[in-house]
Design a protein that fits this description.
2 domains; eight-stranded mixed sheet; AB_hydrolase_1; 8 strands; Rossmann fold; Proline iminopeptidase-family hydrolase; 11 helices; about 15% strand; AB_hydrolase_sf; alpha/beta; hydrolase
Length: about 350
């Protein structure tokens, strides 16, 4: 005898199937519409160039142009990326393409004055914190970013610049992200001397220190020692032959004049005549009232515990810890890094940001 389902159960089955299909169809249509909106550049000032723009800035030494490139559209979540160095390039951020678009977050690549696609004047008086802060403010205005949508993310030196910007212009910010940067260069130097240095083979460290003492930074031996003993352990924890193309290009395009003037020639902290060597904003962090995320990594050149402490100094702070990461945790602990950034941005956007 055949098993025959009751008519009412058959009808219910097809009814539910219809509802599910309708629901799936609606969700798919909504998702498609969101994707189209995100990718729609029509009517934008940068439509012709696919999101790229040159922005004119005024400086004490005249007018120059800096380069930016927008990716995506989102009226309430727009992230301006401040690269490291000083004198680095936007290229190190290219991995953001793998994560932020699918989250619907708009973001901007940006080469600071003196870097890569931007103008590169030779006047060394331009390379100081205050002037860079005013540059960021002019870029913000040109891009029409404001407190309803403007997130500022600074990595390494960009973290110093982002901190300085927030201390002067936080009323323009919706959220702040300080990635892999402490608030005190003296603390950075102390960590390099007392923690990172002793982790090295004593003979290797002695030879590195000897080269530095002689100011013989162009000696090929210096980088021969640093690459396997420092860079691949604390800058980017991958074998050098596996370093991602954007990172290699960034290092290749680094403006060494700016880097040495502000950071100094040593890779063990900031030494000599580096203009940033006394920079310390640790006591000023409580003045930054906007929601702020600090990011630290276990193997960083910076102390992860210090970066965790920083998050407790902001009235609305949060810490993101990357257990497998180094200074460029966006590559060597990528999923942790981006999951934390996306959650922070969306929590701030929804009003759900809580201190952790």
């Amino acid at each position: 005898m055949k098993n025959i389902l009751p008519c009412w159960l058959v009808c219910l089955f097809f009814l539910l199937q219809g509802c599910t299909s309708s629901s799936d169809s609606t969700a798919s249509e909504n998702s498609t519409a969101q994707t189209i909106d995100y990718l729609d550049y029509s009517g934008k000032p940068d439509e012709l160039s696919g999101g790229a723009r040159r922005i004119k800035i005024n400086t004490p030494k005249g007018e120059f142009y800096v380069w930016t490139k927008r990716v995506g559209n989102n009226p309430t979540m727009k992230v301006l990326l401040l690269h490291g160095g000083p004198g680095g390039t936007h290229e190190a951020f290219e991995c953001f393409d793998s994560y932020l678009p699918k989250e619907g977050i708009e973001y901007y690549y940006y080469d600071q004055l003196g870097s890569h696609y931007s103008d590169q004047p030779n006047d060394t008086s331009l390379w100081n914190n205050a002037r860079f802060v005013e540059e960021v403010e002019q870029v913000r205005k040109a891009l029409n970013l404001d407190k309803t949508n403007f997130y500022l993310l600074g990595h390494s030196w960009g973290g110093i610049l982002a901190t300085e910007y927030a201390l002067k212009y936080q009323d323009n910010l919706k959220g702040l992200i300080i990635s892999n940067m402490v608030a005190s260069v003296p603390a950075y130097n102390k960590y390099a001397d007392e923690v990172l240095g002793p982790q090295m083979d004593p003979k290797v460290l002695a030879e590195i220190k000897q080269i530095e003492a002689k100011n013989d930074f162009t000696n090929p031996r210096y980088m021969e020692l640093l690459m396997p003993n420092f860079y691949t352990k604390h800058a980017l924890r991958m074998p050098l032959e596996e370093w991602p193309d954007p990172v290699l290009r960034m290092f290749n395009h680094m403006n060494q004049t700016i880097y040495v003037q502000m950071q100094g020639p040593s890779e063990f902290g900031l030494r000599g005549n580096a203009s940033l060597k006394n920079w310390d904003r640790s006591k000023d962090l409580p003045k930054i009232k906007v929601p702020t995320l600090t990011i630290g990594a276990q193997h960083d050149t910076m102390d992860p515990k210090y970066m965790e402490w920083m998050s407790t100094q902001f009235p609305s702070g949060r810490y993101l810890y990357c257990p497998n990461g180094s200074h460029m945790a966006m590559y060597d602990d990528q999923k942790t890094y981006f999951a934390g950034i996306v959650k922070f941005i969306k929590d701030v956007d929804s009003g759900a940001m809580t201190k952790k």
